[in-house]
Amino acid sequence: AFLIPYTLMLVFGAVPLFYMELILGQFNRQGPISLWRICPLFKGVGFCAVLVAFYVSFYYNVILAWALYYLGSSISAELPWMHCNNSWNTEQCWELRSLNETNRSMSLVLNETLKNSKHTPAFEFFHRAVLEMQWSDGLHEMGYPKWQLVVCLILIYCLLYVSLFKGVKSSGRRTVSVIRKHQLCQFSGKVVWVTATMPYVVLSILLVRGLMLPGALGGISYYLQPELSKLKETQVWVDAAVQIFYSVGAGFGVHLSYASYNTFHNNCYRDCIITTVVNCFTSFFSGFVIFTYLGYMSHKQGVDIKYVATEGPGLVFQVYPEAVATLPGSHLWSVLFFFMLIMLGVDSAMGGLECVITGLMDEFSSFFRQRKYAREIFTLIVILTSFSVALINVTPGGIYMFHLFDTYSAGISLLCSALFEAIAVSWFYGLDRLTQDVEAMLGMKPGIYWRVCWKFISPSFIVCVVMFGLLYHQPLVYNDYSYPNWAEWVGWSLALSSIMMIPLGAIIQLCKTPGSFKERVALSISPVEEHEEIRRSKLVRRFRAKHWFYI
Prior knowledge:
mainly alpha, Amino acid/polyamine transporter I, 23 helices, 2 domains
């Protein structure tokens, strides 16, 4: 059932806004904040996007630290999540390989016991060896950071700093010598062939192996069979919207930052289509891989698959290790899988932090241009700040804070960022101007589908999702732990701190703009390049009906 709202939000929400961000970044060649010279009233949208991207780094990089911990554990003599003979295992630990046909024909009572109390070695390794959740009962009992995870986190942030401190090289914004650039392109091209294809090779091998296991087809059937009654639950629609915007990257400002380094006539339309198709195929394909092994685990344990599937990052760190353990040469495949996961994750993490760095440095360029090593020092400040906050997530109670960040830092606030971005560009900046920008870059105008989505469908979809998400919001829960009221307040404060940038930015812009109230509004909703003409002629294009009714 999740695929239905996911597909609708993809087609009518995320993809049109993704294309819009590529257009805006490439045409204006500005970061996600300074870009709003096109409509100064909405500069707060840029600050909102940058804050959301920064907040996500507080917990997203922790996932990479977990993956690095798993990578290190893969080098041991025996994969520690293959058996129940470790010091952290409990009496509830059951190895899948020890369960036979007799176990699966147990009585209903015993099945209920299995469902509620039996854990796989991979489950206990993640929760007890990595997270050490046995030492914490909630947010009131956080404990001290686990030193092994701290080391992993330091290594991840060091890798991010090395990748970011010199910035993105581009002939349009930052230049490098022709020879050096050619060498970089040749090297990057060779690396991309490995990093882009390796995930599909590993996933394909895991899928083939998974299909050979008993119960795999049951898992795939569960994956493809829609449970239409779930569509009545508003949280399914909210989760689908957040997931697709998160997956495509719309609303974060990341694509605005990266597209600003494109050449002016780069075919961003082609980039949009290829990226979204590959992204959706990868998500769908990964689902097949996961559910073959969930079907296998369900078959072995003799319980319904819905009791095997878990939510959140635990799914990756419980199902895939179990999957890798079934392969011949499991150590090698484990190393390859977690190395692949780290490389893909670092790439995404770089995008979020690059949005923060580029956005603020472009907006305050006069300050940074006067200082030597400004990029290197500012990148270090951003990295250290993010690392300091992320440390709380590697304590025994860190998973509870992780879930809090995951729920509130890029949920409703991400959708609000995308919503006001769509409104600002399609209604205030104007579809007529945006169409002219596309034609100047690509030699063609965007079709009616794009224009209607930008102006009506995408904003309407997001408004509905946000409204129903707020009306039917449920108290935050992680597994059996119910969050206290103060934690909910912290979460909403986190979300509102980024959302409030939008009205705050508008108020500041209106206050600092000289003139009468009408003149302030006129200048605030018009591109900076038109301000001189507006002051001289008193003619404001955005006060005309033609501007608002253009499709």
